[in-house]
Structure formats: structure tokens, C-alpha cells
Amino acid sequence: MQRHPMTRLALAAATWLLVQGLLLATAGVARAEQRPAAAGEPIRIGVLVPLSGIGAAAGKDATDGWNLWWQRHGRTVAGREIQSFIEDTAGNPDLGLSKARLLVEQRQVHMLVGTVFASVGLAVATYVEQVGIPTFYPIAAADDLTQRHRVPNLMRIAGWSSSQVTHPFGEWVATTTPCRRLVTLAADYAFGHEAVGGFVNTFTDVGGQVLEQIWHPIAETDFSPYLARLAATRPDCVFAMPVGAPIIRFIQAWHDLGLWGRIPLYVGEVVTDQAILRGIDPPDLVVGLISAGHWAEGRDDATTQEFVRLYEDAYRILPSYYAAAMYTAAQWLTRAITAANGRVEDRQAFLQTVRATQLQETPFGPARLDDYNHPIFNVYIREVVKRPDGRAWNVVRHTIPNVSQFYKYDPEAYLRQPVYSRQYQGINWP
Amino acid sequence: MRTAWTWASVAVLGTLGMFAPLYLPAFYLRLLTESLIYAMFAMSIDLLAGYAGLVTLGHAGIFGISAYLVGYLTARLGLPMHVTFPCGVLGAVGASLLFGIMAVRTSGVYFLLITMAQGMIVWGLAFRWTSVTGSENGIRGILRPDALATQQAYYYVILGAFVLVAFLLVRLVRSPFGLSLLGLRENEARLRALGYSVWLHRLLAFLVSGCFAGIAGAFYAFHNNFVSPDAVHFVLSGQGLLMVILGGAGTLVGPVVGAGVFIFLRNVVSLYTDRWPMVLGALFVLTVLLAPQGLVGLARQLLRRWPAGAEPAPVGSTLPYGVVSPQPLDGRNNPAPHQPTNHPGKRRR
Amino acid sequence: MAAVPALQLEEVTRSFGRLQAVDGVSLRVEAGERRAIIGPNGAGKTTLFNLITGELPLTRGRIFLFAQELTHLPVEARIAQGLGRTYQVTNLFPQLTVEQNLLLAALGLTRTKFRMLAGLPRSGPVREQVERLLAEVRLEYARQRPARELSHGEQRQLEVAMALASRPRVLLLDEPAAGLSAAERVMMGSLIRALPRDLTVVFIEHDMDLALGLADRVTCLHYGQIIAEDTPDRIRTNAQVQRVYLGVG
To answer: Cβ–Cβ contacts within 10 Å for residue B147, how many?
Structure first.
């Protein structure tokens, strides 16, 4: 009886030793990889994307877009080689944070780019604020990343925020369509709250009325009850934004309940993004759907179409906004590194250069940063159209130029309001 | 001889642990810290699943309630850690009390389902109670006091807490109460007929386990400076259980090893391949098929065979705490005495 | 007025659907008495035990232990009132050692069972109790063996020891000798005979010689009803008992 605890303890010791040994061994390997930072040495960029788990498809698009830029435009900028270290976050904040630290502390990267999920982005934000490394988020859309909780060294180059594209959309619907009485239906989480909040805020500013706001669980499988309820309130139009896999079920239910053509439907950018459109069969289900977005792969513009063609040649599919954003982020960084003469080690100066970089021609259109490290760009009112090859894409029906994350509002006053949530949708503000 | 070997290992282990910040680069020190936090979490699950036979799939909920409380009080209200930490743990115990009262009257698959549902309720709250939890944006900026700001300082705090938690748990499982947990697992009807109030013992086990899960959750919030719905997600409950089974249920060493292996695989193997979840899955399947008592059980068997032909292990040396699968008492399946007690098949009532 | 009976049943009934497994059984067992319950298979003997300990709820009737009513108490409270039992089908903690099985049993009615940070008792009343019981049922040599590795006979001995561990006032033994070899049977008999005289023992037994040899009085159950209750000698010659039980069995 007395000896057993000892045996167990010994086993504990042995196994833990083994784990420590493994850690130590890998640490050794990792150390050997470290090199001192110096000009002329490669510029190391850490890229955080989900390559496993639920976000793996988006992560692949993002990686493809990122790689495409460097393949097409060369991996040498200002005389220095660009090295990308792409790490998997699995869409998990813990792991994202670990990987961010790995990239910064072990790989000694000069800057970080990435994160698809807002949760991972927010987790990483606290860390990068502490260490001051230049960090760029082209995809994660959480409003407060560049608003109430902004981080000086974190910039959303080629990025967007949830309410940025819906602000002009709400106003556009209220002023150019007959719709005055609105019902919203969206996924019940922060991205949904923020995107719908943007729409509702401007929609009500110009006299529109919100009859009801319906929030559905993010992984909803059956939309019929919501749509029945929605139809019963007899709105002039509907703004809807389910996300991910439920989107196709939502579209199907909209058709099945005979709402298509009866109630005008406006949707969020992600609903008709290529990441979703590619999987919709037949594409006729969504042809004619109106949305607003900062990305429009069908935009009649040379730079946009050059990127779309390059991407299509390389990967046989049309690019989603994940791909476009990472491609454009690479373009932005190339310009900034060139302007900084390759001196990325001076973080403050480099951040300043990135902030000052203005791009006239990107796949998104012209873009520059505001005083809050967030891009000002065009917002496109898009319509889904079937191409001659049978695939659906978003073409531009109307362009609202130079939209900032605050739209027409005064930034200071805007930031005194809370971030959009279920409780606060900006209906009575301003 | 065995004792000498043990003490030598403890000495080496202690030294390695004490001086880890000196030889481990910051990133790996962080991983070590993280595995110690997850080890505490996995041990709390094992207390229920491995010892008391109550397989739970909702423990991340309790873990996360503590993490969220700490996060809210620290980041939003600006309270200091010595206030928020106990609040987090107390919150976890409170939640355990509530959940426990609901769950302990069931067992087996019903217990599993009800705890899973509880975990999902917490997740739903974390996801939808935006004004408090920030929805999937979570709560960030959960900063440690300046004295603990560095990875090194925090590591020592976690190491100390881990040693304390492990010590308390070792005492617990060897106490009369610990024995009653084994009784619960083995034959709860018989335990009742010996004068034990089965539901009270289960509830106590649930509370104690919830308390330790809460400690792990509070440390987790300060470790990441961040908490999001992933910290209360069903997946984390499953991963905790996976750590327990991987390492060896019904042992305290098992969850620690399981947590270490899990964190190692997730962070280090994923540097080399995006297919790391498959590696983890394969390891898990192999463990269940070939070493149902987990890696610790396997190591024990190997150790016993190692000095081949030496004195046979004392009968029952893997008992009381090392055995996972109860066997029918009909005599057919009784192995001959002096056989290692290794039973394939999952623990299931 | 007679002494308070150790165990008293009033019209105890349990039905499963339309089947009356135990049908209006009234029984009075005096303190210190050895009472055998006999009857053919399916007579409701084990069901009766389960009703007494509370493992099955009653359909109707009342149960008293030394004039204390047990009818509405849960199992563990009835045990605390001084009831102990063994099971027909061996019912132990299979992975735990003999010693642990006994410790669990001995701790059952103490507050020590809630201690979370103390070690298992190495001395004191609980430990002494365990040691005494180990000696009484002659299992000292097997104390470190898991219950599952014991022979059937040893397991039955352990069962008796566990039932005694909570120092019951009334002990219910459900076929203590079932499945035992002749030698083990003798051993079990002497074990039961050696139980303290002030302990009330009610036992179910199929082995008539053993049952009639140990009992002060015998109750015969048939289809859930008492058909006879008498001294062993008279039961042996009771025509009804012979017809339903001895003739068959």
C-alpha cells in the first residue's frame, strides 16, 4: 500500500520529464532557426490563418491570395527578400495567441498579418499591443479593433469593419428604393449585431422605420419559423445576414416560402461572397440578389479584373474577399516597404510609412487609412449576376466613394456611443 | 530501489520545473504554463470522470464562467487580481452547485447529456449576452498585476498553484471521501446500501471538481489576457475529456500527461503540418484501442515488464486508482492472479 | 406487553403491473431472533428484502425497525437506522481491494466519510472495526486483493463482513450460501452461528438443512404470501410447506 503512491509519483516524474525533453528538443531546433535581425537580411512576415478546423476554407483562400501577390510581383522588395511564415490558428484564440508569440519570439518576424476570426484577432491584439510589433488585419471585421479598443501598432490595411459597408447601404436602401418599413434577420453574434446596427442606424436616420429585428442562432438549420414570422409583419423590405453554412439554407427557405420576388431582400456582404456563391447550385437561386460590399469581383475595373484573372488562372475559382484582402495587404506592404527603403526594423517609422501609403489602384479600388488605422474605401452596391460561363458573381450597380468606418458621423461623437449590440442598434442616434 | 529511483526523478523534475525559465525560450515557457493550466482543468474533469465515474461534457462551462467573471471584473471594472481571482473561483463553485443539483440525480449517458446541455447554455450566454461578454469578440485586456506581468513570474505562480492543486487532489483521492468516489464509480447501488447518500457525494464531487476547474479558468483568463466563447465551448469540454482519456483516466498523472501531450501536439506539431488534428485523432484512437488505460497505464505496464523475470509486481499494484474498467464478477473474466490488470473495453455503465 | 419487535412488517405489498410479487406480508421478528425465510423460486423473498431496505418502493404497507417507522425513508437512512444486508448476486466494489471494500462499509455511517484531506484511517474505531471483521470472516490474507479476484466463497464472506461493518441491529442475508461448495457452506454456517446473539438475523436460504439448522423460526413464502410460520421442526413436517416447497425443491 505504501509503495504505490511512490510508483505513481515516479511515473509522473518520468512522463513529465519526457514532455519537457520534447519541449526542450523543439526549443533547441527553434533556437537554431533564429537569426539576428539586420538590414539586407530577409524581411520576415508572420501570417496567421486558420488552416484546420471550421475556418480552413477561408484560411486557404486567404493564403492563396497572399501567395499570389508574391508569386506575381516578386519576393524581393527594396533589395530584401520577403519570407512568409504561415501558421495555423485553427480558428482558436488560444492557439492563435500561441502562434503569434511563436512568430514574434521564435521566428523573429518583423510584422504580423492575418487572422480570419475576430475572436482570434482580438486575442492577438492584446499581445501585439504589449510588444509593439507592426500588425495588420485585412480580414477580421470587429468594429472596436480600430474604434473603442484600437491599438496604435495595429492597422487594418485592406481590411474592413462590420458596420462600415452597411452604413451607406442602409441609407441607400432608404433613399433610393421605396422601402420604408424594415425587418432585419441576422446571426445572433457580434458580427451580426454590428453589421445590422450599421444598416439600421443610417436607415432610421433618413426616416426609415424598423418593424422588428430577428436574431437567429448562428448555426440555424431551419429558417421557416423566422421567415413565417417575418412575412407576417408585412415589411417593405428585409435586410438579412446569416453567416457560413446556414446561408444556403436561408436562401432555400426564402424561395420555399414564396418570399422571393414578393418581399425585396437585401443581404450582407458575406452572404453573396464568392466563398458562398461557389457552393450555390444552381446559381439562379441567388441571381439578382442585392448586397453592399467593399469587395466586388465583378467590378468593371482593370486592376480588379487583372487580379480576378490571375486568381482564376492559378486556382480555377473566383476570388472571395479573403483572397482579395490578403492580396491587397501584400500589395500595400510592398508599397510601404519600398517607401521605407526596406527599413522595417524601425517600427515607428515603418508604421508611419504604412499609414501614409495611399493606393490608387487596388482590386478594391482606391484605399487609404484614416486617423484610426482603418481604411477609407469605396462601398459598392452589388448585384449577383450569372456570367456567360454559368458562374455567379457580384457586379457593381452603384458606387459610394471614400467611405470611412464612421461614414457621415463625427468620429468623436460616434465613439462615445457603445459598439452596436442587440441592445444598441443606433435607432435613436443621432 | 524503486524509492531511490522515484526520489531521483522527483529531484530532476523539480529542478527542471524550477529552472525552466532559464533554459526554455519564452514561447516554450508559455506552452509549459499553458499545459499546467490545462493539466489542472483535466485533473478536475478526471476527478469526476475517472474517479467518480461521472463522465461530464460540460466542464468548459464551469471553467469559462470563472474565466469570464475574472475577465469582466478585471477588464471592465478594473478590479485587482486578488479580488477578481477568488470571485472567479467562487462563481465557478456557485455554478457547479446549480449544475450539480440538476445533474447528480442522473448517471451514465444521461449525466453526460445533461452536463453537455449545461455547457451549451453557458456558451449560449457567452455568445449572446453581448453587453457583458462581448459575444464572439470576447473580453480582452485582462491584464495581470505588474509583478506578474512577465512570462517568468506568471510561470512560477502557475507552477506553485499546480503543485498545490496536485497535492490537494492527491490527498483528496486517498481520503475517505476519495474512496467513496471510487465506490460511486464501481457500484453506486451498493454504496447506497452501505448508508451513503449517493447524490450528496456526487454533488460534493461536482463542487470540488468545479472549484478546481474554476481555478484553472481564472488562471487561463490571466494567461491569455483574453476570454472568448471558445473558453466555454463544448469543444473544450471534449478536449479536456480527451486529455484525461489520453493520459489515463482514474489517475492524477494521466490528465497531466494528457494535457502536456495535447498542448504539445497542438502547438508544435501544427508548426509542421496542418493535419495536426489527424495526428491527435490517430493518437487518441490508438490509445483507446491499444492502451485503454491511457499513456500512463501503458507506461506502467512497460515499466513492470522492463526488468524481465524480476519479482512479480505485487497483486493489485495498479489499484486502487489505476483501473478504468469494472469487470463482471461472474468469474469468467477474472484474470489469473499476478497478471497485469489491463482490460480492453471502455468504461461504461 | 411484549418487547418491541426488531423488525415488523404490516401488510407489505409490492405489485409489478398485475403481478403481486409481495402480497400483504405481515411479519414480526423479535430482537436477537434468527429468522429464516424460505420458499420456492419466485416466491418474492428477495423482493421482500428490497422492500425492507428501500431499494424498491412499497406499493402498500408499513415497515418498522425497533418501533421506528422506515416506510418513507430512503435506503441510506434505513441503513443508518441499523439495517444491514447482503445480496443474492454478489454485490461488491469489484476493482477495490478487500480492505477498501470493508473501509467503505465501515465508513458508511460515520462522518469520516466526508473527510477530503485526511488519509484513510490507520487507527481508531473504523480501522479496528475493519481489522476485526477481516479476522471474523477470515480474509486477512486477501486484504490487498481486488474483490473481483476472490473466489466465490471468499466474496460471499466479504459480503457478510460488509453487511456487519455498519454494526447493524438487524441483518438481512440473502442466500449467503448460494453457489458455495460443501466445505464453504460449513464455513458460512459457522460464521453465521458465531454472530453476536443480540444481533437479529433474517436470512433467505435454499439449503433446507442450513436454514433449519440456524433458524429459531422459519417463514415460508409462496406467491408473495406467507403460507406458514413456525419453528424449524414444525416447518419440516408442515404439509403445506412440503407440498409447495420441499416436494418441488
So the answer is: 10
In contact, A237 and A185? CB cutoff 8 Å: no
Residues in chain C: 249
pLDDT digits (tens, 9 = 90+) for B152-208: 899 999 999 999 999 999 999 989 999 999 999 998 888 888 888 889 999 999 999
| Domain span holding position B108 | 24-245
Cα–Cα distance between A393 and A318 in angstroms, integer?
8
The closest CB to that of A19, out of B140, B231, B264, belongs to B264
Q: Is residue B179 part of a domain?
A: yes
Give which of A85, A137, A129 is closest to A106, Cα–Cα. A85
Which chain A residues are Cβ-neighbours of B253 within 8 angstroms? 8, 11-12, 15
Higher pLDDT, C206 or A181: A181
Which letter does DSSP use for residue A78 in this model?
Answer: T
CB contact under 8 A, B276 and A88: yes
pLDDT averaged over every residue in chain C:
86
Asked if residue B296 belongs to a domain, the reply is no
Q: Which of A126, A138, A165, A148 is nearest to A48 (CA)?
A: A138
Q: Which of B141, B174, B253 sits opposite A11 (nearest CB)?
A: B253
Interatomic CA distance for residues B259 and B266, integer angstroms: 10
Distance from CA of B228 to the nearest CA of A (A): 7
Whole-model pTM: value is 0.82
Domains in chain A: ranges and CATH = 43-162+302-377 (3.40.50.2300), 166-299+379-416 (3.40.50.2300)
Nearest neighbour of B334 by CB, restricted to C112, C119, C148:
C148
Please report which helix (H) or strand (E) contains residue C62, including its range: strand C60-65
Give domain status of residue B342, yes or no: no
C7-16 and C60-65: which strand pairing? antiparallel
| Residue C224, pLDDT above cutoff 70 | yes
Q: Do A23 and B32 touch (CB under 8 A)?
A: yes
ipTM value greater than 0.90: no
- Partner-chain contact B186 C93, CB within 8 Å: yes
Q: B283 in a domain, yes or no?
A: no
Task: Give the pLDDT confidence of A91-146 residue by residue, as tens digits.
Answer: 888 889 989 999 998 889 999 998 888 888 988 998 899 899 999 999 998 999 89
Which residues in A lie closer than 8 A to residue B271 (C-beta atoms)?
Answer: 87, 102
Closest partner residue to B193 (CB to CB) among C53, C97, C117 is C53
- CA nearest neighbour of A145 among B213, B136, B309: B136
| Res. B332: pLDDT tops 50 | no
* Pick from B318, B44, B53, A1: nearest CA to C120: A1
Binding-face residues of C in 66-85 toward B, CB within 8 A? 74-76, 79-80, 85
Would the CB atoms of B175 and C76 count as touching at under 8 Å? no
Give B-chain residues touching A191 at CB under 8 angstroms.
136
Residue A283 grid coordinates = 446559381
